[in-house]
């Protein structure tokens, strides 16, 4: 299955530097922090948030999540989103077959793997033409060596706070734990980010950091995003200095 990939240069992300996974991934320094808004499951909020022009929109296909898409969103609504927005399916320990079927149905160009997925599964998904974002939970330390097998097959890593649930815990971790990151895969910062972090994030410089993932901190109810608060956040983040 080959989902057409959005043109990254259209997103002003990069100068077309081949990514670690062999795709044309945004490895070159973006002109600002990329923004992924995750957990979309309400049609009205989806239209409002899409109009803000985030770089990525995430749809959660983990049945235990309060943000599980289920039957809440028609696949056509997702497929009809502007091609400039990367549509990301978020999965937890799902089979490759199911992920590919869902990606095709909803027109997803990317997968976010938020469980204990192996590097071999990342390889399968990457070879199927999907952009692969592998999430890792962060507690008191980050074992960068454990990430090495994933490097060739992932376009992005995502660091999220370890918690009771696989994701969406609404808690931040100590971002300084990433100050020693030296792998060639750019990453997103996730976990409890809210409007109160905007100023700090706009000037935050960590090696490899290229984007932020906004989720439960911008909701009126699980899966219902607050477009007003997101608009304020994007305005502040879009003013952020180039990511180096
Ligand atoms: O949000 C969820 O319910 C969820 C469920 C299962 C896997 C991932 C999930 N969300 C991801 O979790 C992080 C952090 O979210 P939060 O800011 O702490 O709410 C984010 O990457 C979401 O994509």
From TrEMBL:
<keyword id="KW-0057">Aromatic amino acid biosynthesis</keyword>
<keyword id="KW-0413">Isomerase</keyword>
<keyword id="KW-0028">Amino-acid biosynthesis</keyword>
<feature type="domain" description="N-(5'phosphoribosyl) anthranilate isomerase (PRAI)">
    <location>
        <begin position="35"/>
        <end position="234"/>
    </location>
</feature>
<dbReference type="Pfam" id="PF00697">
    <property type="entry name" value="PRAI"/>
</dbReference>
<comment type="pathway">
    <text>Amino-acid biosynthesis; L-tryptophan biosynthesis; L-tryptophan from chorismate: step 3/5.</text>
</comment>
<dbReference type="GO" id="GO:0016853">
    <property type="term" value="F:isomerase activity"/>
</dbReference>
<comment type="similarity">
    <text>Belongs to the TrpF family.</text>
</comment>
<protein>
    <recommendedName>
        <fullName>N-(5'-phosphoribosyl)anthranilate isomerase</fullName>
        <ecNumber>5.3.1.24</ecNumber>
    </recommendedName>
</protein>
<dbReference type="InterPro" id="IPR001240">
    <property type="entry name" value="PRAI_dom"/>
</dbReference>
<dbReference type="InterPro" id="IPR011060">
    <property type="entry name" value="RibuloseP-bd_barrel"/>
</dbReference>
<dbReference type="InterPro" id="IPR013785">
    <property type="entry name" value="Aldolase_TIM"/>
</dbReference>
<keyword id="KW-0822">Tryptophan biosynthesis</keyword>
<dbReference type="InterPro" id="IPR044643">
    <property type="entry name" value="TrpF_fam"/>
</dbReference>
